[in-house]
Structures are given as structure tokens and as C-alpha cells.
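Posting here for the record, re: zinc ion.
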Amino acid sequence: MSSEIEYKDPVVDWETRAYWEACARHELTVQRCGACGKVQHRPRAICASCLSGEVETLVASGRGTVHTFTIVRQNQVPPFASACPYVLAYVDLEEGPRLLTNIVDCEPDSVAVGMPVQVEFVDTGEFAVPRFRPA
Amino acid sequence: MTISGTFAIAGAYEHPTRWAPDKTEMQIIGESARGALQDAGLGIEDVDGLFSTSMAGGGMGIVNVAEYLDLKPSYMDGTNIGGSSFVAHVSHAGAAIAGGLCEVALIVYGSTSASDARAIGTGMGMGRDPHTAFTSPYGQTVVSSYAMSARRHMHEYGTRPEQLAEIAVAMRHHASLNPHAKMRKPIGVEDVLGSRLIADPLHLLDCCIISDGGGALVVTSLERARDLQRPPVRVLGSGEAVWHQEIGSPKLLEIAARESGERALGMAGLHHGDIDLCTIYDSFTITVLLTLENLGFCKPGEGGDFVSGGRIALGGALPVNPDGGGLSSNHPGMRGIFLVIEAVQQLRGECGERQVEGARTAVVHGTGGILSAAHSGATLVLAAE
Ligand SMILES: [Zn+2]
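Prediction output follows.
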């Protein structure tokens, strides 16, 4: 039986700190542009659609669906090598953006495209890393 | 103004090595430059444009290449858009030549990826910076990223693993006819499906090999190329594009080739039916399938049928990678230059057992980066004169 992936505190900067601080509160956030309304992820200081600086943070529902996934059976990097096989996936959030993440709390073979999933957080010390489980 | 047809590839050389623990990357670059210049009938003193990049060379790599070759070019371009870079370098060279910034461009690459034991496909690390913080915790690898494209394709269109396997089988057949190829023992669909899963649904034999190697191209004006010793291979069309998946939720199965291919064929004024062969970046079997669809050789979702029944093998309607590609011939980190070299050699009719009979036109497409995330595409349309 493999072990779980051990997450480390993410490295943050001025553009991403608020996102990871929200994760520490177990809130998943995306950004919405105050000028054009576009929702974006990953966080940045400007709206990537209209370059407005009026981007606001919005707490997401944490619900989404699996857009696609794979079961990783080989990864030579130490923190992941012992966690194989694990599920890597793109999840489409209800709010629109697509996140790369892990799907946990289920047999890897039971994951399917379109499966509804719900965010959960793993505390890493100062921050936390979001991942998803079946809803 | 268009650069279409104004310039040509006058020299091409693929370094025969696949395993070079006794060579440095610079040595492979030097030997490849010598080979391409000899092919063109030119000397290093004729080169006034230098184009190169690498995985190991760093941001100023091209300056180090110039130093190693004792070159002081009037024009240099170290563009790095991933494995497609050298495909893009060809059109950049054409633009520079048309603009009078240089006359003879040397495009060169060398790598000791295999003997350095770089785990390119399954060794993506824990990036420790703010940008990769959004992906690095999750154990993403290059193979798994492409596997997610393959999974999505299977979900949307019912594409089957044995259809992807057909691509690997065709490439291996081609490699069996190429004396320099690294993996030459023929395989069948069942061998691919029976090889271990690296990241579902991609098996070991759906993945490119890792080799050492290098190569070089000499690009000059069509006029000058006509005075040289080899038949010029004209560049009729070129296109570049970059694609990324982050903002909003774009279609995962639309890739940069869709735009770069349309630009290149549009510039050339050619249609898909005019093309005799393709050389396509084949990091993974799914890369070939998605590239054929996005270049427009078949409709989205029809790639699985398109690659079946020997259509992309030698003797088929559209032979792809007659050298055996990255899946079986060579893949030293960045493979773009070999796509161009093989197309040039095919259009000059010098490929022996793996020659596409009567080949006059070729589409070359390089992918750089990761298809399911940020990636580049560069396309060329080449023609014999
Ligand atoms: Zn905006």
C-alpha cells in the first residue's frame, strides 16, 4: 500500500500570499475582475483579460467536477515516488477556473471524468494545500 | 511582404550518436555544425547568423555556443519555446535573412540527456517558487500531463488505447529501417498495451525514449542556396502559436498546432491534400494524434481512426516520422531540430529504405512544453524545388 503525498508549505509572493492565506483558513478562492467580470485562477495582480488592477478575491464553493485525470504509477522524485499510484486531475470549479490537483479518499480506479468532487485542505504549517475528494 | 519561398535549407546533419558518455554537449554541437556545413558546402567562416538553445545551457547559452565555435555572428537568436524551438528558429532565420540581418544561418543543438541520466518524463521536481506552487505539490510529471490529454480524448471521442498504440508501432517500424535509430526491434499493438502503465492511459511504449544526440541546419536565401552543392529545400510556410489552459476553462484538446498550422499552410498556399509527409513531435503517442487533428489532417475526434490501418506508416496515405521519431529513433531532451532534418532529407530523396517515394512537400510540427498546460507550437511547410 502506498503512502499519501506529503505536502510542504508553498513558496508565496505578493501576488499569491492572499490565496495561500485563505487556504490556511480552509477557503478556496478565485479572483474576479471588478472591471470586466472575468473570473481567473491562478491569482495575479491584474486581470489577464483586460489588464485592470481591480481584481477582487471571491471564496469559491469548493465544488467541482473532474475534467480529466490520470493515475500516476511512476514518479522518480522522492516525495512522490512512495505515493504512487496517486490520482492527478484537472478539476473544473463551479466558478469556472480549472485547477490541477489530487483526488483522494477513493480507489484510484473509481475516479471518472465528470465525477463531482469537493475540496479539502491539508495543513502544511503556515499555509494549507487544497485537494479534492468525491462529493 | 512575405518570407514564403524566399529562403531555403541548404544543409542538414543529424549526429549519428544516441549514447555519448564520452562526449560533451558542446562537442556534439561542434560536430553537428561541421556536418551541416559540410553538407551545404560551406565553412564556419561563412556563418553570420547563429540560432541555438538547450535544456542545460541556461539563458545565455547561445553566447557560450558562439564562444565554443569562435563565432562572432551579426545576428543571434536563442529563442527557447521548448522542444519546438528549432522549428521556430528556421522561420526566424528566414526573417533575419530576408531583412538583411544575416545571410547564412546556422541552427544547432546538442544534448547528452541520456548519459546524464535525466529523468525528463517522470522526474519533474518539487518546484520551490511562487509560480510552480500551484502545480508542484501534486506530483505532476510530463508523462502524467500528457496522459490527462489522452484520458480526455478517450472520454470525449471514445479513442482506444490500441489506436494510440498504432502510432508507436508505426514509429518502431520506421526505426527498423533507420540504421541510426536507437530502438529498432519491431513491435506490435499488443507489445505497447502489454508494457507497464506509467500514467494511465499511457504505457511505457506510448512514451518517447531518452537518448543523446544533436543536429544542425544551414539556412540561407533561396538564391544563395541554389549556388550551393545540395538541392535547396524551400520554406514555403511557417507559423507559431502559444497555448495555455489556466484562465477560465478552454478546451483541453485544442492545442497550439491549430493556430500555427493554419498560419503555415495559409502562408504556403497549400492544402492538406498537397502534403506528402509529416514530421511531428512525438513525445508521446497522444501528441501525434492531437497534432494531426489540430493541424487539420482529420477532424477533432477522428484521430484514432486516422492513425489506424497503417495510414501514417510508410506506404500509407500520410507517412509520419519516417526516421522513427522520438518514440523510437532519438529524443535528446528537445527534438525539434530532428523534425526539420528528417523532412529535408526526405525531400532530397536520400533516405534509403525509409524514403517516402516521390516526396515533394512536408509539414513539420514541433510542440514545446506540455500539451495539457502551457505549450508552444511551431509549424513549417517545406518543399523540394
Ligand atoms: Zn478584466
